[in-house]
Design brief:
By secondary structure, the protein is an alpha/beta fold. The chain has a single domain, classed as Rossmann fold, CATH 3.40.50. Helices cover 38% and strands 17% of the residues. It has an 8-stranded mixed beta sheet with strand order 3-9-10-8-7-4-5-6, with helices on both faces. Strands 1-2 form a two-stranded antiparallel ribbon. α1 packs antiparallel against α6 and α3 crosses α4. The longest helix is centred in the first third of the chain and has 19 residues. The site of zinc ion has 5 residues, from loops.
């Protein structure tokens, strides 16, 4: 058994384990190697996926994955307007940010913003299991559920529920009424957790250089939060002072995109630098796909004798 695997006595198989081992750089793959596979990106707020994982999601979709985007909160606290107006603007921008990255569909669960530590994690887990079974999700992209330094309860509550849902969606006695309704148990076996705060573990550096325009496209749709309109706001402030920045161009769209490129991607440049990449995102990747032939299968093949 390699040092990167451990023995699961329940399943009787050696399973890949990703919390050890070297950092692997994931580069663009030619063609559509993931065709037929499905991933769910699960975030809490409008700007989480665009900022933490927008490039990676665009890359997975370009390489053949079908992507679904789930937002767990209603984002009512962010946007600078009344609660109701914030909910509406974030919801509308969420659709646009998802479309910019190529997601097939979005789903909003509307838990109250900043209050997810008070909700029933069991309720959230059941809703995620329903979606994972319905879409037959192979892979999730979400928050690190046990990540160092995470101060936002919506982030860790979401990450924990996703992690729990990934394996319980494969167990037929969990939420068995869903099976009566026609859904089948379905394991989610690959997980990418964002590198969300300094000090969190990561073992994947994803080269997002070829997807940076799509990441910027999604960031500039995040106007209620995430800085998507900072460029046009700065441009307007400078006009009032009789000034202009050549960087920001001559229209609001260009101003927002170039502001994002110049000021909102510093961490992506920093993550790429050690690997000679222009832009990168970091993840903690866990692969629980089982080997086709387990050690039990091997032993039986070698040692079983006729009765
Ligand atoms: Zn967030």
């Amino acid at each position: 058994m390699s040092k990167n695997s451990f023995y699961n006595s329940t399943l009787g198989v050696a399973m890949a384990r990703a919390d050890v081992g070297p950092i692997i750089v994931e580069k663009d793959q030619p063609g559509q190697p993931h065709k037929g596979k499905v991933f769910a990106a699960v975030h809490a707020h409008l700007d989480d996926i665009p900022l933490y994982a927008g490039g990676h999601c665009a890359k997975l979709i370009r390489e053949g994955y079908t992507g679904y985007l789930i937002r767990t909160t209603n984002d009512e606290k962010r946007g600078g307007h009344s609660t109701a107006a914030n909910i509406l603007s974030n919801e509308q921008e969420h659709l646009k940010a998802a479309a910019a990255l190529g997601f097939k569909d979005t789903f909003d669960l509307y838990y109250q913003n900043h209050e997810m530590d008070g909700i029933s994690s069991l309720d959230l887990r059941g809703r995620l299991i329903f979606l994972f079974r319905m879409w037959k999700v192979d892979t999730v992209v979400t928050f690190n559920p046990w990540g160092h330094g995470e101060e936002n309860p919506d982030h860790w509550a979401t990450g924990r529920a996703v992690e729990e849902a990934c394996w319980m969606s494969g167990i037929e006695n969990d939420f068995h009424e869903q099976l009566e309704a026609g859904l089948a148990p379905h394991d989610v076996l690959e997980r990418y957790y964002f590198y969300g705060r300094p000090g969190q573990l990561y073992n994947r550096v994803v080269d997002i250089t070829a997807h940076i325009e799509k990441k910027i496209d999604s960031i500039v749709e995040c106007r209620s939060q995430g800085g998507g309109n900072f460029g046009s706001e700065l441009r307007a402030r400078l006009v009032q002072q009789g000034k202009r920045l050549p960087l920001l161009g001559n229209d609001d769209r260009t101003a927002d995109r170039e502001y994002a490129r110049q000021f909102l991607l510093d961490s992506n440049r920093e993550y790429g630098k050690p690997h000679k990449l222009a832009f990168a995102e970091r993840f903690y990747y866990i692969d629980q796909r089982r080997p086709r032939r387990s050690s039990v299968d091997e032993y039986v093949a070698k040692n079983a004798v006729a009765l």
